[in-house]
Write a structure and sequence with these properties.
about 200 residues, mainly alpha, three-stranded antiparallel beta sheet, 9 helices, 6 strands, globular
Protein backbone atom coordinates (compact mmCIF):
# COMPACT_ATOMS: atom_id res chain seq x y z
CA UNK A 1 0.00 0.00 0.00
CA UNK A 2 1.11 3.53 -0.71
CA UNK A 3 1.83 6.22 1.88
CA UNK A 4 -1.45 8.00 2.79
CA UNK A 5 -1.35 11.75 2.15
CA UNK A 6 -3.34 13.02 5.13
CA UNK A 7 -2.90 16.70 4.26
CA UNK A 8 -4.29 16.17 0.76
CA UNK A 9 -7.14 14.08 2.16
CA UNK A 10 -8.02 16.73 4.77
CA UNK A 11 -7.87 19.48 2.17
CA UNK A 12 -10.05 17.45 -0.22
CA UNK A 13 -12.69 17.26 2.54
CA UNK A 14 -12.31 21.00 3.09
CA UNK A 15 -12.45 21.70 -0.66
CA UNK A 16 -15.75 19.88 -1.11
CA UNK A 17 -17.18 21.38 2.07
CA UNK A 18 -16.45 24.89 0.84
CA UNK A 19 -17.91 24.08 -2.60
CA UNK A 20 -21.04 22.95 -0.73
CA UNK A 21 -21.55 26.28 1.11
CA UNK A 22 -19.18 25.43 3.96
CA UNK A 23 -20.58 22.11 5.13
CA UNK A 24 -20.87 18.60 3.77
CA UNK A 25 -22.02 15.18 4.91
CA UNK A 26 -19.73 12.19 5.17
CA UNK A 27 -21.34 10.04 2.48
CA UNK A 28 -21.17 12.78 -0.17
CA UNK A 29 -17.57 13.73 0.58
CA UNK A 30 -16.41 10.10 0.52
CA UNK A 31 -17.95 9.60 -2.92
CA UNK A 32 -16.54 12.88 -4.29
CA UNK A 33 -13.02 12.00 -3.09
CA UNK A 34 -13.43 8.59 -4.74
CA UNK A 35 -14.42 10.18 -8.07
CA UNK A 36 -11.48 12.62 -7.85
CA UNK A 37 -9.04 9.79 -7.09
CA UNK A 38 -10.48 7.68 -9.93
CA UNK A 39 -10.12 10.55 -12.40
CA UNK A 40 -6.59 11.41 -11.32
CA UNK A 41 -5.43 7.80 -11.35
CA UNK A 42 -6.79 7.24 -14.84
CA UNK A 43 -5.48 10.50 -16.31
CA UNK A 44 -2.20 10.94 -14.44
CA UNK A 45 -1.25 7.50 -13.14
CA UNK A 46 -1.62 8.09 -9.40
CA UNK A 47 -4.42 8.75 -6.91
CA UNK A 48 -4.52 12.07 -5.06
CA UNK A 49 -4.82 10.70 -1.52
CA UNK A 50 -3.01 7.34 -1.76
CA UNK A 51 -5.73 6.04 0.53
CA UNK A 52 -6.81 2.43 1.07
CA UNK A 53 -10.20 1.91 -0.57
CA UNK A 54 -12.79 -0.54 0.70
CA UNK A 55 -15.93 -1.73 -1.06
CA UNK A 56 -18.78 -1.24 1.40
CA UNK A 57 -22.57 -1.26 1.28
CA UNK A 58 -22.79 2.38 0.17
CA UNK A 59 -19.96 2.19 -2.37
CA UNK A 60 -16.19 2.74 -2.30
CA UNK A 61 -14.82 4.20 0.94
CA UNK A 62 -11.39 5.76 1.36
CA UNK A 63 -10.57 4.67 4.92
CA UNK A 64 -8.17 7.50 5.81
CA UNK A 65 -10.57 10.13 4.48
CA UNK A 66 -13.35 8.56 6.56
CA UNK A 67 -11.18 8.67 9.69
CA UNK A 68 -10.20 12.30 9.02
CA UNK A 69 -13.83 13.29 8.50
CA UNK A 70 -14.78 11.63 11.79
CA UNK A 71 -11.63 12.97 13.50
CA UNK A 72 -11.23 9.40 14.74
CA UNK A 73 -8.47 6.76 14.72
CA UNK A 74 -5.91 9.34 13.75
CA UNK A 75 -2.40 10.15 14.80
CA UNK A 76 -2.01 13.36 16.80
CA UNK A 77 -0.43 15.00 13.75
CA UNK A 78 -3.33 14.07 11.43
CA UNK A 79 -6.00 15.18 13.93
CA UNK A 80 -4.21 18.45 14.70
CA UNK A 81 -3.87 19.26 11.00
CA UNK A 82 -7.51 18.44 10.14
CA UNK A 83 -8.92 20.41 13.08
CA UNK A 84 -7.35 23.58 11.68
CA UNK A 85 -9.67 23.34 8.67
CA UNK A 86 -12.96 21.73 9.73
CA UNK A 87 -14.96 20.76 12.79
CA UNK A 88 -17.82 18.37 13.48
CA UNK A 89 -21.21 19.94 12.85
CA UNK A 90 -24.16 20.04 15.20
CA UNK A 91 -25.87 17.36 13.09
CA UNK A 92 -24.53 13.81 12.80
CA UNK A 93 -22.18 13.07 9.87
CA UNK A 94 -21.71 16.75 8.94
CA UNK A 95 -18.54 18.81 9.06
CA UNK A 96 -18.16 22.57 8.78
CA UNK A 97 -15.19 24.25 7.14
CA UNK A 98 -13.47 26.84 9.32
CA UNK A 99 -10.58 27.89 7.06
CA UNK A 100 -9.75 28.30 3.37
CA UNK A 101 -8.31 25.37 1.43
CA UNK A 102 -4.53 25.12 1.71
CA UNK A 103 -4.01 24.78 -2.05
CA UNK A 104 -0.24 24.43 -1.69
CA UNK A 105 -0.66 20.75 -0.71
CA UNK A 106 -2.14 20.02 -4.15
CA UNK A 107 -0.61 19.82 -7.59
CA UNK A 108 -2.45 21.52 -10.47
CA UNK A 109 -3.61 18.09 -11.62
CA UNK A 110 -4.96 17.31 -8.11
CA UNK A 111 -7.06 20.48 -8.24
CA UNK A 112 -8.22 19.58 -11.75
CA UNK A 113 -9.45 16.20 -10.49
CA UNK A 114 -11.22 17.72 -7.48
CA UNK A 115 -12.96 20.24 -9.77
CA UNK A 116 -13.93 17.42 -12.13
CA UNK A 117 -15.51 15.46 -9.28
CA UNK A 118 -17.42 18.50 -8.01
CA UNK A 119 -18.60 19.67 -11.44
CA UNK A 120 -19.59 16.17 -12.59
CA UNK A 121 -21.00 14.60 -9.42
CA UNK A 122 -21.26 17.32 -6.76
CA UNK A 123 -24.98 17.93 -7.16
CA UNK A 124 -26.05 14.37 -7.88
CA UNK A 125 -28.90 13.08 -5.75
CA UNK A 126 -27.95 9.50 -6.73
CA UNK A 127 -24.24 9.64 -5.90
CA UNK A 128 -24.19 6.32 -3.98
CA UNK A 129 -26.03 4.48 -6.74
CA UNK A 130 -23.61 5.96 -9.29
CA UNK A 131 -20.61 4.46 -7.47
CA UNK A 132 -22.25 1.02 -7.65
CA UNK A 133 -21.94 1.10 -11.45
CA UNK A 134 -18.13 1.05 -11.42
CA UNK A 135 -16.28 -2.25 -11.86
CA UNK A 136 -13.99 -1.82 -8.85
CA UNK A 137 -17.05 -1.82 -6.56
CA UNK A 138 -19.20 -4.23 -8.61
CA UNK A 139 -16.46 -6.85 -8.36
CA UNK A 140 -17.22 -7.09 -4.62
CA UNK A 141 -21.01 -6.62 -4.67
CA UNK A 142 -21.77 -10.31 -4.08
CA UNK A 143 -19.49 -10.42 -1.01
CA UNK A 144 -21.12 -7.32 0.43
CA UNK A 145 -24.62 -8.62 -0.27
CA UNK A 146 -23.50 -11.90 1.32
CA UNK A 147 -22.73 -10.17 4.60
CA UNK A 148 -19.17 -8.82 4.34
CA UNK A 149 -19.03 -5.33 5.80
CA UNK A 150 -16.02 -4.32 3.74
CA UNK A 151 -13.72 -5.80 1.11
CA UNK A 152 -10.35 -4.28 0.08
CA UNK A 153 -10.28 -2.71 -3.36
CA UNK A 154 -7.35 -2.64 -5.79
CA UNK A 155 -6.32 0.54 -7.61
CA UNK A 156 -5.65 -1.55 -10.73
CA UNK A 157 -9.41 -2.14 -10.96
CA UNK A 158 -9.99 1.63 -11.25
CA UNK A 159 -8.52 1.32 -14.74
CA UNK A 160 -11.41 -0.87 -15.93
CA UNK A 161 -14.24 0.93 -17.72
CA UNK A 162 -17.77 1.15 -16.36
CA UNK A 163 -20.78 0.15 -18.48
CA UNK A 164 -21.74 2.23 -21.51
CA UNK A 165 -23.41 5.49 -20.50
CA UNK A 166 -21.57 5.77 -17.16
CA UNK A 167 -18.93 8.53 -16.92
CA UNK A 168 -15.56 6.72 -16.81
CA UNK A 169 -13.88 9.64 -15.01
CA UNK A 170 -11.46 10.07 -17.92
CA UNK A 171 -11.50 7.80 -20.96
CA UNK A 172 -8.39 5.71 -21.50
CA UNK A 173 -6.94 4.39 -24.72
CA UNK A 174 -5.55 0.84 -24.56
CA UNK A 175 -2.01 2.26 -24.55
CA UNK A 176 -2.79 4.64 -21.68
CA UNK A 177 -4.46 1.86 -19.68
CA UNK A 178 -1.38 -0.34 -20.03
CA UNK A 179 0.93 2.55 -19.09
CA UNK A 180 -1.16 3.28 -15.97
CA UNK A 181 -1.01 -0.40 -14.98
CA UNK A 182 2.77 -0.31 -15.23
CA UNK A 183 2.92 2.92 -13.22
CA UNK A 184 0.79 1.43 -10.44
CA UNK A 185 2.86 -1.74 -10.32
CA UNK A 186 6.06 0.31 -10.05
CA UNK A 187 4.56 2.49 -7.30
CA UNK A 188 3.49 -0.61 -5.41
CA UNK A 189 6.94 -2.20 -5.76
CA UNK A 190 8.56 0.98 -4.39
CA UNK A 191 6.05 1.12 -1.51
CA UNK A 192 6.87 -2.51 -0.62
CA UNK A 193 10.59 -1.68 -0.48
CA UNK A 194 9.98 1.14 2.01
CA UNK A 195 7.92 -0.93 4.46
Amino acid sequence: MFHFFHKKAAQAINFFSLKNNGEINKLRVLKLVYFADRYHLRKYGRPITNDQYWAMKFGPVASGVKDLFELDSLSHEERHYAQQFFVQGTRVHIIHSIAPVENSVFSDSDLEALEFAWQTFGHSTQIVELTHAYPEWKRHAASIEGGSTRVPMDYLDFLDDPPQGVNPCYSLSNEEREARREQLKEMNNIAVLWR
